[in-house]
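Table 4 source record.
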Amino acid sequence: MKRSLESIVYSQDTEVLAKFAKALGHPTRIAILKHLENQSCCFTGDLVEVFPLAQSTISQHLKELKNAGLIQGELKPPKIKYCIHHDNWNKAKSLFQEFFE
């Protein structure tokens, strides 16, 4: 019998937890989340001043966090203001807590 990942059915919570875990898979992303957790919101340029990385690198990490739903961006032309997506942030904390219990 041929086995493949396509034949495995995961619960929605398992899929969401995996998405969050993947987004947390880089130390810079964790550092960005910690920074945003202590701020109401900030712009990419603010993060470039905090972290010794190129703006393009910071932007890529923000994109990954946003795609996972952990942060949200609000367009303030010509900039984007980023902050924690509190509903998803609380969901992530809850799912990780359940996973580790």
